[in-house]
Amino acid sequence: MESEIKLIVKWNSKEYEVDCLSENDSIGTLKEAIFRKTGVRPERQKLLNLKFKGKMPENDCLLSALTLKPGFKIMMMGSLEAAIADANTVPDDLPEVIDDFDIKDGEDVAIENKEVYLSKIDKRIREYEIKVLNPTRQDKKLLVLDIDYTLFDHLSVAECGYELMRPYLHEFLTSAYMDYDIAIWSATNMKWIEEKMKLLGVSTHNDYKIVFYLDSLAMITVHTPEYGVIKVKPLGVIWGKFPQYTPENTIMFDDTSRNFLMNPQNGLKIRAFRQAHLNRSSDRELLKLAKYLRAIAQLESFVNLNHRHWERYLKARRKEKKHKHRDPEPPSSSDNPPT
Fold first, then answer.
1. Between 96 and 39, where is the model more confident?
2. Rounded CA gap, 147 and 92, in Å?
3. CATH number assigned to the domain covering 107-322
4. Matching CATH topology for 4-80 and 107-322?
5. How far is Cα of residue 136 from the mean position of the Cα atoms in its chain?
6. Of 95 and 130, which is predicted with more confidence?
7. Which helix (H) or strand (E) holds 116?
8. Residue 263: which pLDDT band, with cuts at 50, 70 and 90?
9. Region Disordered: what ranges (predicted)?
């Protein structure tokens, strides 16, 4: 007698139960069942965490070959036909910044030094297990990266994950890896982080290595007078786990400034990568930031840097180099030829 299989499909932050399947049904049959539940056509579906011999299974692969447990959650990417039809239309009312706010002068300092939040950080240091992927390297600084809207546009429509990847991602990470250990910290769960990094080819790239992942469980909540309770990413959790990283050699990129509220001096607010289907050809943010990382990599300390003005810093460096090129220093007396 065939065993009935019940699965859960997670898509667009919602969960859908898919039943009436048996071990002898195929991936193609599963996709048809998902289509009936979600409206996403089978050819649009990307079932991220289904693997057969290390690869995404073909449509004729039987469910029995995957040995799925009852209630297994399938993470799906895919777009409805209506969304694809509207993909090339930019909304007139699209705000410049979404899901973020500006911190008032002095408010970040007040929050950063409150004992109640420092105690929460101490608890995370004791109890949270960072997922270490590769060994740290001696004398390297640390770059901490967000995922959504920083490296990846997870809401725009696309045929595949590659189309949602921020342009020049691998070039940027390869360049940064020369001077920095690279960590990923996302406000999602660890399973999603792992799947997104696989999808983007980050976790298996030959030219750089990610040192560790942190997920939402490493974050803490803080209270701000104007915005109430919010979750943030305190770098003190990393510094407590890895003493070689400090405020002097750590920089964090995130598209929302609230995430580095506990460490405002170490945060750089990157321009959010949204509307990937429209902006893939013009976005150069990672190329510019790779230059900034190289420019500051030789500094002994980041403490005196204001990362809000990173573009201004690069312009000043370029002017300085041009000035030196145009007006070389006169030779010293020892360099003068004998008369």
1. 39
2. 26
3. 3.40.50.1000
4. no
5. 19
6. 130
7. helix 115-127
8. very high
9. 316-339
In 57-164, which ranges are E strands?
73-77, 131-132, 141-145
Q: Which helix (H) or strand (E) holds 195?
A: helix 190-199
Give the start-to-end residue ranges of the domains of the chain: 4-80, 107-322
Q: From 205, 145, 157, select the one nearest 181 (Cα to Cα).
A: 145
Instruction: Say which CATH topology domain 4-80 has.
Output: Ubiquitin-like (UB roll) (3.10.20)
DSSP 3-state helix, strand, coil percentages of the chain (rounded to 5)? 35, 20, 45
* pLDDT higher than 70, residue 297: yes
Kindly report, residue by residue over 54-73, the tens digit of the pLDDT: 788 899 999 889 888 888 99
Alpha-carbon distance 110 to 114, whole Å? 7
| pLDDT for res 116 | 85
CB 223 within 8 A of CB 110: no
* 52 neighbors 23 (Cβ within 8 angstroms): no
SS3 6: strand
Assess whether pLDDT exceeds 60 at residue 16. Answer: yes
Q: pTM for the full model?
A: 0.68
In degrees, rounded to 5, the angle at the alpha carbon of residue 11 between the alpha carbons of residues 8 and 16 is 35
